[in-house]
Amino acid sequence: MSETSATKSYDDMTQEERDKHDREQREKEEAEQAALPYKWKQTLQDVDVTVPVPNGTRGKDVDVIIKKNHLTVGLKGKEPIIKGELSKDVRTEECTWTIEDRKEIAIHLEKVNKMEWWKNVITTDPAIDTTRIQPENSSLSDLDGETRAMVEKMMFDQRQKAMGKQTSDELQKQAILEKFKAAHPEMDFSNARIS
């Protein structure tokens, strides 16, 4: 790390110093990730890990144990290539592994929390800066029903706030109050406030 980035806070840096700091951090992160005995990538829904193994490796030659919060991967009779606590919990019943071209183990981990990025696969491995993740463009139709509804609501509320209008929750409260007013015309609602 350069002396400038070590002594100044990020907010106090010039744009040139920030660019240099960001570049150094990115290079450090890339070097740490390249040194791992596996490669990995993720979406909000899942994590895919590939582990190179000797050419000709078959399924019966490997040990893969996927638990809710733990992963062990290796060749039978040898020290595990990966062994440790997972960054976050996975849905074990939806996780899979295969041998690809008899030279790598491909592991698919299905996240329990489909709304957060993992910093690493194994908690003791070097972390990535999740604030720099550029998610692939996806369509709302790619999401499951519950997630899609939540994302659509968030998008609607964001548009409403930008226009200075009521959010969906505020609109719902207003509708409930209007129904209550209609059902109770004898009551005075002139000073009623929705909170």
Automatic annotation (TrEMBL):
> Which interval of the chain is the signal sequence?
none
Compartments reported by the entry: Cytoplasm
Listed InterPro entries: CS_dom (IPR007052), HSP20-like_chaperone (IPR008978), NudC_fam (IPR037898)
Tell me if Cytoplasm is a UniProt keyword of this record: yes
Q: Name one GO biological process term.
A: protein folding
Stretches the record annotates as Disordered: 1-35
Keyword match Cytoplasm: yes
Which Pfam families does the record match to this protein? CS (PF04969)
Per the record, the domain of life is: Eukaryota
Write out the biased-composition intervals (Basic and acidic residues).
Answer: 9-31
Q: Name one GO molecular function term.
A: unfolded protein binding
> What are the annotated GO cellular component locations?
cytoplasm
Arranged from A to Z, the UniProt key words for this protein are: Cytoplasm
| Predominant place of localization | cytoplasm
Q: What does this protein do?
A: Required for nuclear movement. May interact between microtubules and nuclei and/or may be involved in the generation of force used to move nuclei during interphase.
Protein name (Swiss-Prot/TrEMBL): Nuclear movement protein nudC
Output the lineage of the source organism: Eukaryota, Fungi, Fungi incertae sedis, Mucoromycota, Glomeromycotina
